[in-house]
TrEMBL record:
Matches recorded under InterPro entries: Carb_Metab_HTH_regulators, DeoR-like_C, DeoR_HTH, NagB/RpiA_transferase-like, Tscrpt_reg_HTH_DeoR_CS, WH-like_DNA-bd_sf, WH_DNA-bd_sf
UniProt keyword list: DNA-binding, Transcription, Transcription regulation
Keyword Transcription regulation: yes
Classification via PROSITE patterns: HTH_DEOR_1, HTH_DEOR_2
Organism: Seinonella peptonophila
Protein name: Transcriptional regulator, DeoR family
Domain HTH deoR-type: from-to ranges: 5-60
Pfam families tied to this protein: DeoRC (PF00455), HTH_DeoR (PF08220)
Record lineage: Bacteria, Bacillati, Bacillota, Bacilli, Bacillales
GO MF: DNA binding; DNA-binding transcription factor activity
Amino acid sequence: MNLTPDQRRNKIIDILEQHDFVDFTYFGQYFNVSEMTIRRDIEYLERAGEVVRVYGGAKLRNDRGYEASIQERLKTNHKEKQVIAKQAAAQIFDGDVIALDGSTTALEVSKLIKDRKNLTVITNNISIAIELSTAVDIQTVLLGGFVRGSSLSLVGAMVEQSLGAFYIDKTFISSRALHYTEGLTDITVEEGEAKKAMVEKSNRVYVLVDHTKLDNLSFFHVIDREKIDVIITDQLVPFTQEQQQLIENFRTDGIEVMISSDD
């Protein structure tokens, strides 16, 4: 069975959803990989909050995989999203071709750019398309796909196919977590794949994450840190020592980190 690490981890979750406990030996035989590889997968999923390691194997966390509705996410860390969106909007100029993902932070950005001239906005999110529909000097492109009711985003293979004809100057994406070694990770495979597709078509990638997402992991790998040009975050509360080190590491790698404040 020749699977990528992401595909294998997805399958591990599928198997654990059908069984209370599965041991490492079974996984190794099932995927035809070493037990060490399985242990690394389980450690990754444990850090992402999906599974719990128990002696000789793993089981699902009882509180794993909760995805809030768009209404709930709009209320969560709303002030942080607003200050990050203000900084992001300042990077968008007349004549740009940009992409906005299905995140609520990107929705906040869309509210601040309606005065731009000759702007093209490509998005897979219905709420963003509606928000921009009255902006007379903005051409909005809504990508095709299947509708996810929890986010009002369009996902699936049609998203990538729809992007085929476009060249994007700047892509703005958010996600559940940002980590130095694992990069950007998210809770849903479908949303993550849509973000990946936008990044692959973009000249410059902006990652919008509030301070609570720094130095954290989620379930699905979206992009490596090498794909990121700019990180925009907030400091409405002081950074932890680990978060400050993370920022310094990104900057050492040549990634620009913009820290927004409530001013």
